[in-house]
Design a protein that fits this description.
The complex is a heterodimer.
Chain A (H helix, E strand, L loop, with lengths): L11 H19 L3 E2 L5 E2 L11 E5 L6 E5 L4 H9 L5 E8 L11 E10 L3 H16 L8 E5 H9 L8 H10 L3 H7 L3 H16 L5 E8 L15 E9 L2 E8 L4 H17 L9 H10 L3 E7 H8 L17
Parallel strand pairs in A: 1-5, 7-8
Antiparallel strand pairs in A: 2-4, 3-4, 5-6, 6-11, 8-9, 9-10, 10-11
Helix pairs in contact in A: 2-9
Chain B lengths: L2 E3 L8 E4 L2 E11 L7 E8 L5 E7 L3 E3 L3 E11 L4 E4 L6 E4 L1 H4 L11 E7 L2 E6 L3 E9 L13 E5 L4 E4 L8 E5 L4 E6 L2
Antiparallel strand pairs in B: 1-6, 2-3, 3-4, 4-5, 7-8, 7-10, 8-9, 10-11, 12-13, 12-15, 13-14, 15-16
Classes of the chains: A alpha+beta, B mainly beta.
């Protein structure tokens, strides 16, 4: 169909999406994980300098309230967990400003779930089970790989991802046709990791149906806990299907003070980059004070999963109304 | 000069890079999970034709290049410059050797070409996809051989050399695809 009014995707995609969603719901129903809904429009948002949000004003003149479209339902879901909801999942929209491309749409669908008393390993196992079930593959025939970030990074680059040595990173870039990295990343350890991971390592993961990378360097902990035995790494993992990043899981940080410290650090980065500062979400922090139970949680990109399910090349092929038609 | 953010990058956009005008061939937005977003771009340098890969930090901006494509008629060569004229305005442009480059071997008087202008100066000339040219020299070949197998070189009126089937003779007009430099068919006059 032509014309911007019409869906960008084939109508068959609507069926595939509905099927995928009903399978996911069946999976969690069977495991007694409760489906929940939390607000998309909230009074606070995350401080992560890498996540640009949409904001809007709630009109109650003259004291209009600044509101935010959620970049993920994480804070609100953790408030439910702290209140005693038990294990929960949600299928909802999330919004990220400025993200648009083959694998990005500013508004996208997320599956996020939290498992009480699960450690990282248990959540990784469950994620594999869910994906094999949705992709209709079985464990014996699928090419599955589970490995640590450090092992993967060192095998491919011979660089140590946890222990940053600028000079060796620069020589690696010079020898591997990545000279742009030198001027872009300067002395920023985390950006170097992002650059090398996305340019060099991720393409290597295309050979696996399913690949889980865990034990991220501590500077990339985000909202995960620092590993209790090895403070150089975080209890965080990511899932890649044929090299496409599909999900990100944490052993959830429950310590309010540590969480507040990370918010402050991120706001400091925002200040240094001239970005708008973000108010620390008081409801979320108070929920942590009240006590977040031991849990692991994960967010999974549903539109990308649908892309993989239907062998599509771009999100535009699986969304009826991607950003340019929204 | 206008600026473009990497968020506006798409195929065909003309930008300045290292002081040369370039065209974006492909832009991939990449963003690792919780990390820095990048634009990984394939870019053609419009002066040299070379294709390079570059990475920008997402949100960076770059200067736009004042590059436009126009349809223009080839007139003649005076030995140093190749002269062209816009059919509607009669405005003339003269292109130097660098601009006509390899296109020169397909340029026949009055052909409608695409000229790329940078700051109103000719940067490159692209001949029509198909041109009809007469053969000025080729081996007589064997009579009766009508198969295309093998073929032979033929020199055309513009100096280009293409492979043609054995049955094609001196003086005949042939149609050539300028993008591949391959013979397409004979042209009946």
């Amino acid at each position: 169909m032509n014309g911007q009014w019409a869906p960008a995707c084939n109508l068959k995609q609507l069926q595939c999406r509905a099927q995928m969603l009903s399978k996911i719901r069946a999976f969690f129903e069977q495991r007694k994980v409760l489906e929940v809904e939390t607000p998309l429009l909230c009074h606070s948002t995350g401080t992560d300098p890498q996540l640009d949000f949409f904001s809007s004003a709630y009109h109650c003149s003259p004291n209009n309230k600044q509101m935010y479209l959620q970049t993920s339902p994480e804070f609100a879901m953790k408030r439910l967990l702290a209140a005693g909801s038990g294990s929960i999942y949600q299928i909802c929209k999330a919004f990220r400003n400025g993200e648009s491309g083959r694998f990005h749409n500013p508004e996208f669908s997320i599956l996020e779930w939290y498992r009480i008393d699960y450690n990282l390993q248990q959540l990784m196992d469950e994620t594999i089970e869910l994906l094999l079930y949705v992709l209709e593959k079985n464990e014996s025939t699928a090419n599955i790989k589970v490995l640590t970030y450090s092992a993967l990074f060192e095998e491919i680059t011979a660089l140590n991802p946890c222990n940053f040595c600028l000079q060796s990173y620069i020589s690696y870039a010079e020898n591997n046709n990545l000279t742009d990295a030198i001027s872009l990343c300067e002395n920023d350890h985390s950006m170097w990791l992002d650059f090398i991971f996305s340019h060099i390592i991720q393409p290597e993961l295309e050979q696996y149906h399913l690949c889980i990378v865990y034990g991220y360097p501590a500077i990339q902990a985000s909202l995960s806990r620092i590993n209790i035995d090895n403070p150089a790494i975080a209890d965080r993992f990511e899932v890649f299907i044929k090299g496409i990043e599909i999900a990100n899981g944490f052993l959830e940080l429950a310590d309010r003070n540590e969480q507040e410290r990370r918010f402050d650090q991120e706001n400091e980065v925002r200040r240094s980059k001239g970005m708008m500062l973000v108010k620390k979400d008081p409801y979320f922090l108070d929920a942590l004070s009240a006590g977040l139970p031991e849990c692991s949680g994960i967010a999974l990109g549903l539109d990308r999963l649908l892309m993989i399910l239907t062998n599509s090349n771009s999100l535009k092929e699986v969304m009826p109304f991607p950003f340019d038609r929204a | 000069m206008a600026k473009y953010s990497t968020n506006e990058f798409k195929a065909g956009l003309k930008i300045m890079l290292d002081a040369d005008p370039c065209a974006i061939i492909e832009n991939e937005f990449i963003k690792p999970g919780k990390g820095q977003a990048f634009s990984r771009v394939k870019i053609r340098n419009l002066k040299t034709g070379r294709v390079v890969e570059r990475t920008f930090k997402s949100g960076e901006s770059v200067e736009s290049a004042d590059v436009v494509d126009i349809e223009i008629q080839y007139l003649y060569c005076d030995g140093d410059f190749w002269h062209f004229m816009m059919a509607d305005t009669f405005e003339q442009y003269q292109a130097d050797e660098n601009a006509v480059a390899d296109s020169v071997k397909w340029l026949k008087d009055q052909a409608i070409c695409t000229m790329t202008l940078w700051n109103d100066l000719p940067l490159s000339v692209t001949p029509p996809n198909f041109v009809e040219l007469s053969i000025t020299d080729t081996d007589p070949g064997l009579k009766g051989d009508t198969s295309g197998g093998g073929g032979k070189p033929a020199t055309l009126e513009t100096g280009a050399v293409v492979r043609v089937p054995l049955f094609v003779q001196i003086g005949e007009m042939i149609k050539v695809d300028t993008r591949t430099g391959e013979y397409v068919s004979r042209v009946k006059e």
